[in-house]
Amino acid sequence: MTTGESTETGRRLRLLGCRMERGKYTTSRVYVEFDGPAPGQRIVCHQDGFATSGGDLRLAAMATLNALTQATGGLLAFVLIGVKPVRAFEATVIMVGISLQRDGETTRLVGAAIADDDQLVATARAVLHATNRFATPLLRE
Question: Can you give the three-state secondary structure of 53-116, one letter per residue?
């Protein structure tokens, strides 16, 4: 769902980028941008919060979940459990825990992505990794 893969219907979200803006007094705003499921559609979401290393990753995850909720027409409700960079296999891996609520049931999801140079991008990819099997069938044009 993140790097040129296609679904049976051809609809998917493709991560275009993440960026962070530092505000006054220890605040941050993280933006995520996706190429949406419909041709030419762009989905840009942001999340505001406190400027900390872990807080910035949390903002990136929450903005990505907002984009997924928007892309699926609100059919899925996500709650971020947590984001954690871990050292494994001589690399930094971003792990995310997400709770998915749908049809009166709760499912816990886990996603991971290697953080090559950009931990914000890796966080967005980890969220997509955790959620794509539920979100992809619901993507709306």
Answer: HHHHHHHHHHHHHHHHHHHCCCCCEEEEEEEEEEEECCEEEEEEEEEEEECCEEEEEEEEEECC
